[in-house]
Amino acid sequence: MTYYTKEHEWVRIDGDVAMVGITAYAAQHLGDVTFVELPAIGKTVKQFEALCAIESVKAASDIYAPVSGTVLSVNDELNGRPELVNESPEDAAWMATLKPADLAETSKLMDRAQYDEYQKGL
Amino acid sequence: MEDLQETPLAGRHRDRKALMAPFGGWNMPIQYEEGILAEHRWCREKAALFDICHMGEFLYRGDIAAGGLEDVFTFSVASVPEGRSRYGFLLNDRGGIIDDLIVFRLGRDEAMIVVNAATAKNDFSVIRSRLKSGVEFEDVSAATGKLDPQGPLSREVLSGLFGKGIAAIPYFRFVTTEILGSRAIVSRTGYTGELGYEIFLPAGKTPELWDRILSDPRVKPAGLGARDLLRLEMGYSLYGSDIDETVTPLEAGLASFVDFKKGFVGKEALLAQRAEGLKRSKAAFRVDSRRSPRHGYGIWKDDRRVGTVTSGCFSPMLGCGIGLGLVDADACAQGTTLALRHENVSMQATVCDLPFYKGGSVRG
After folding, report:
1. Does the pLDDT of residue B2 top 80, yes or no?
2. Which of A89, A83, A5, A84 is nearest to A51 (CA)?
3. Strands B144-150 and B47-51: what pairing?
4. B183-189 mean pLDDT
5. Do A57 and B229 touch (CB under 8 A)?
6. What pLDDT score does B3 carry?
7. Which of B36, B37, B292 faces A55 most closely, judged by CB atoms?
8. Which residues does B contribute to its contact with A (CB < 8 Å)?
9. B178 lies in a domain?
């Protein structure tokens, strides 16, 4: 099941692994991505706090953790190919996986239909 | 907020699904569909076309010395030969930069002054106030269009379309010629570091010229986003970011565009500043990662705040962040290690020489 935040992150929950990235909407609005600051493995974050950072030709932004948890792995490919975020934001350009602390937090997120509706209102 | 102005090409930008944003009081294309990096690369490798109709143009007619024009800028207009142009500054009496501009010597008693969009209105009244009453001085910005084809293939493209005369124009020279049935000025100048041209022609003709140049498949349109990367890779200052009325040309590392052998407003302030020694000056630096410095980030040396970033970006040609800043005099030597910080962002950078990108075709 994939959930979405108002800040345009997605999180795919698969058992006790939560994979995190940014949505196509976010990638398009950032423009060409030039740098992704991946989180340290083992870093613990709370829901909606800064997980890592991203920079594009236009702006620098934080990426917020859709759920609380501990970083299990990061997508090292983004170090050499940050443009992957523009090419495949919701798939190949995942940024980190987390061990979620509390799956009940997903109640504060949107499902795909809700997120699509949310985008229309922006 | 004041209504944004639009260039005669606004409809064409919208047709191309350009991302538009306010710049200097104008609604301008920041990028087209392919994006800033693709447009930047196209300009470095082939030829890009920029809509620069927002910039201001003034016409001066009268004797250069007797009319007072000779004392307005930091360089001698009288010493610029006809058919050539020169870059320099309009200063306030504190030596601060009111604008950076280019003067085109159209004839013995005729010059065109090309200024930034955001400052044009004020520039005009400042220059007017420094001229003698008898001379003709006119703001022709609204009637004048400006398109910049820039890139290593721009010469071939333009001489193919408009004749071989264009191919012979050397850097910082121009010709007055006929394009699409109208009088036009074609100048070998630009803001990209590549071989390129600025074409001035009646505003109403710009859509036709735009279409004509873009009919060549070697040319693609590029927006102000790519233009900013291109100019910063060359270390060119941007008015409003790197320089403004609180910065002097000496501090901005642009003393070579100031002629101290002549009179100009601001000269005494610059002489005093030179005699005292500069307390701060421009520094260029490379970041040790892909992180981009940005306007306003703090600059630190050995845990001491030494200045502020005035421009920064990711350089596609260098593959790292690059930036310009104003720093204390003891922090601008080449090789100095700096830390750039803003909120929770921190990066390390090293002071370097300019241009950042040395492979441009600008003088080719």
Report:
1. no
2. A5
3. antiparallel
4. 97
5. yes
6. 85
7. B292
8. 31, 35-37, 225, 229, 289-292, 294, 313-314, 321, 344-345
9. yes
Q: For residue B104, what is the domain's CATH number? A: 3.30.70.1400
What is the ipTM metric for this complex?
A: 0.87
Q: Token pair 């052998």 is at which residue?
A: B261
Closest CA to B216 of B7, B95, B49, B9: B49
Query: Given phi > 0 = left and psi -120 to 50 = alpha, else beta, which region is B290?
Result: alpha
Residue B191 belongs to domain with CATH number: 3.30.1360.120
Number of structural domains chain B divides into: 3
A87 min Cα distance to partner chain B (Å): 12
- The mean per-residue pLDDT over the stretch B338-363 comes to 96
Enclosing domain of residue B87: 57-126
H-run or E-run covering A1: none
pLDDT by residue, tens only, chain A of 122 residues? 999 999 999 999 999 999 999 999 999 999 999 999 999 999 999 999 999 999 999 989 999 999 999 999 999 999 999 999 999 999 999 999 999 999 999 999 999 999 999 999 98
Q: How far is CA B150 from CA B135, B153, B192, B338, in A?
A: 35, 8, 7, 34
Q: Is the CB of A60 less than 8 angstroms away from the CB of B229?
A: no
Q: Has residue B264 been placed in a domain?
A: no
Structure token digits, residue B214 = 């873009």
> Whose CA is closest to B232, among B193, B196, B289, B281?
B193
Angle at which helices B224-234 and B36-45 cross, to 10°: 60
Give the long-range contacts of residues B27-33, CB within 8 A, separation 24 or more.
B28/B54, B28/B223, B28/B224, B29/B221, B29/B223, B29/B224, B30/B223, B30/B224, B30/B225, B31/A31, B31/B223, B31/B225, B31/B226, B32/B220, B32/B221, B32/B222, B32/B223
Contact criterion met (CB < 8 Å) for B292 and A32: no
Instruction: Identify each DSSP E strand in B158-303 by its residue range.
Output: 174-179, 182-187, 198-202, 219-221, 280-287, 298-301
Q: What is the mean pLDDT of chain A?
A: 97
Residues B227 and B335 in one domain: no
| Inter-chain touch B225–A50, beta carbons under 8 Å | no
Question: Which of these CATH numbers, 2.40.50.100, 3.90.940.10, 3.90.320.10, 3.30.70.260, describes A2-102?
Answer: 2.40.50.100
How far A35 CA sits from the closest chain B CA (Å)?
6
Q: What is the mean pLDDT of residues B209-221?
A: 98
* B191 plus B83 within the same structural domain: no
Tell me the pLDDT tens digit for each residue of B264-285. 999 999 999 999 999 999 999 9
